[in-house]
Design brief:
Blueprint: E1 7-13, H1 20-23, H2 33-48, E2 56-67, E3 76-87, E4 90-99, E5 102-115, H3 116-123
Antiparallel strand pairs: 1-3, 2-5, 3-4, 4-5
Length: about 130
């Protein structure tokens, strides 16, 4: 059951594959903003998916985050997400990422609960 206040966590290690240079979002070998956003979405998805009925899923629809500090290769980036609002099928999360040196990013993320089959039909151009 989805409840306001529920929390989820995920983490990743900064490698060459998730740097700004690899994502072509910058020239430096530091944790990329797109990788941070992906970790935030993953954290939210993994938290709520076990609570959804069979055949339902969720899709990310909005991200509003700040990436405030760099993380070097080898550092562990941790994300904590908190479900802060439920409005029908729309879920809003507060997300915070940190590494060994402290907070590196924070913001909000919205997801919508969807029927997986209907969503895929729509994605494939069916009515």
């Amino acid at each position: 059951m989805l409840e306001i206040g529920m929390k989820g966590n995920a983490e990743t290690v900064v490698t060459l594959d998730n740097t700004a240079k690899a994502f072509t979002s910058g020239a430096l070998e530091v944790f990329a903003t797109p990788a941070m956003i992906s970790l935030m979405e993953e954290t939210c998805w993994k938290m709520i998916q076990p609570e959804l009925e069979e055949g339902l899923g969720s899709v990310g629809t909005k991200v509003d985050v700040s990436h405030m500090a760099p993380s070097a290769i080898g550092m562990t980036v941790m994300c904590e997400a908190t479900l802060i609002n439920i409005d029908g099928r729309k879920l809003t999360f507060e997300v915070v990422c940190s590494d060994e040196n402290g907070m590196i990013g924070m913001g909000t993320h919205e997801r919508f609960i969807i029927n997986n089959e209907k969503f895929m039909q729509k994605a494939n151009g069916h009515k």
